[in-house]
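Apologies for my clumsy wording, but could you write out the amino acids of a protein and the tokens describing how it folds?
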Amino acid sequence: MLNLPRILDAAIEAPIITSFSRIGCAVRSRSEHWTALDDYDLSGRTAVVTGATSGLGRAIAEQLARCGSGVVLWGRDRSKTERTRDEIAAATGKSALDVAIADLAEPDSVRAAAAGLLAAHPRLDVLVHNAGSLSGMRQTNSLGHEVTVASQVLGPFLLTSLLLDRLRSSAIARVITMSSGGMYTAPLMVDRLEMTSDYRGTEQYARVKRAQVTLNELWASRVPTREVVFHAVHPGWADTPGVQESLPGFRRVMRPILRTPAEGADTTVWLAADDEAVQSSGGFWHDRRRRPIHRLGSTRRSDTEQRRLELWDWCVTTTGESPPIP
């Protein structure tokens, strides 16, 4: 018999505009009879969501709270993060909400916040690496690393390393990284991961997103699936404050078919909640299906085992943290 949902998914996937826009999630959710997120019961679990004060991160945090999970909202600005926590509590009627205040681009800040999380939360079931932005101007952190790389590659690597033992003891825990379709255009780089005089914000962002997806697979190959699973997500094109600020021209043209933040957050919350997520590790997901990480031969050729090992070793050396992998 024909698998009509799979055939329909393939037809939507081929033209990027139908797959990445709200058309994709609207058609797939109906043809595949997606379980409503509100139907999941996550009572007793604790999730940490970085970049939780707006856009996709806020939508993820709010939906996890609606499902009954305790949620730690990670943000840089205390007043904004606490205000978001209070607004989510009012909207959901849930009170098991906490905040962690830290800049993911600054290692000392990440270490301090991680120590606070470990002291306050005896179990951690879900870690969502969502924080990220696309900057048109090159900036560096206090150690001289380009901020996009520092906050979206090094910061998440350090935070995962610091929380890994707690995640393992809460098995089966889930680490979910919010990536982007922009990574499809970028080859895997290590020595040129941080752009310098040739800096272009969109290119730097794409390189970082490629590195994130590769690291997701590397974590999965090192940590037993029975303890922690790792997944990366492409949310599609969503109308978020980040898109409004960084890609105004794109938003102006595509706005009628951009996804809402809730639609963009769907697969991340589903991976945090559904049993299917713990049946595998290392996946790259879009609209509740596992997808290939390459669309171009040039990026596939760059993805060598040697370069992957170099990326992992660079993260270990740069963060000064060797993950406690069994």
